[in-house]
Amino acid sequence: MSFANIVIGPIIIALIFGFIIGTRLHLKEENSFKFTAGAIVALIVGGFIMAYDIGQFAYYQDLPIATTCYNWRFDWQCIIRRTSERRSLGNGIYFN
Amino acid sequence: MVEGKKSPNWNKNDSSPILKIMTLPIAIIMIALGIMTILGGHITPGGGFQGGAMIAGAIIFCVIIYGVDGSPFKISHKFISTLESVGALAYVLLGLAGLALTGSFLYNVGGNLYGLVPPAIVAIFSYPDVTHSGIVPYLNIAVGLKVFVGLSAVVIAFSQFKKLAEEE
């Protein structure tokens, strides 16, 4: 596992997606839901637990959680070489 | 209104306190899971439609529990029309790119499986990913946007019918 190779491609797309939906969220209203700062902290912790339980996606294996992140240097020749190695090995998973 | 006819009362905020406290955090988690389903659509089960339906499910959940007026997610008509247009346009434009460059509609110009597109064009449409799946994740994102706002709009429109009937 390596934390240095993480390039934040799809993470940025996910943040944009979340921002688009999050702009619709209005919490300061005369409503009955109790959504405080503690709830936000609990949500973040719960989100990480959920991502850890889901586990790594196929091909995205730099972090032990489901991130949908890009974890490989953009090196086309390297990818082609790794793909041919994978085909020769017969497994469906990349390893660093 | 027909007397005695039972229907969900989505315009009153009379849900139980447990539901009121738990629904919003669960809805946010559902939205995060939906976004993850969309962005992992090319390598894991699921995709644009499924992820968009999960996000719409979170919106519907809030509408049912808090009511249309009390829902923390305010989905306006302008927002819905904008996202629908962006999703549809992105899908069609990605398809037309393949048609213009190779003669085949929705040809994967980012993946370029048949080698019909120059590498410079492939670099533009390529998804920064180990799988190099080309335009497939972008199509998933476009479909996810459309499904999210489409399903949400249907339920919000249905929930307004009761309100209109009460006003009459």
Secondary structure: helix percent of chain B: 55-70%
Q: What quaternary form is this?
A: heterodimer
What percent of residues of chain A are in strands? Answer: under 5%
- Rg of Cα set of chain A: 18 Å
Q: Can you walk through the features of this model?
A:
The complex is a heterodimer of chains A (96) and B (168). Chain A is mainly alpha-helical and 96 residues long. Chain A has helices spanning 10-22, 37-54, 76-89. Chain A starts with 9 loop residues before the first helix and ends in a 7-residue tail after the last helix. The model of chain A is unreliable at 70-79 and 91-96 (pLDDT under 50). The mean pLDDT of chain B is 86. Chain B has one domain. Chain B is elongated. The chains are: A mainly alpha (96), B mainly alpha (168). The A-B interface holds A 7, 9-10, 13-14, 17-18, 20-21, 24-27, 29, 31-35, 39, 42-43, 46-47, 50-51, 54, 57-60, 66, 68, 70-72, 74, 79, 94 and B 13, 17, 20-21, 23-25, 28-29, 31-33, 35-36, 38-40, 43-44, 55, 66, 70, 72-75, 79, 83, 127-132, 137, 141, 144, 148.
The gist of it:
The complex is a heterodimer of chains A (96) and B (168). By secondary structure, chain A is mainly alpha-helical.
Please tag this protein with its features.
heterodimer, A: 96 residues, 0% strand, disordered C terminus, B: 168 residues, mainly alpha
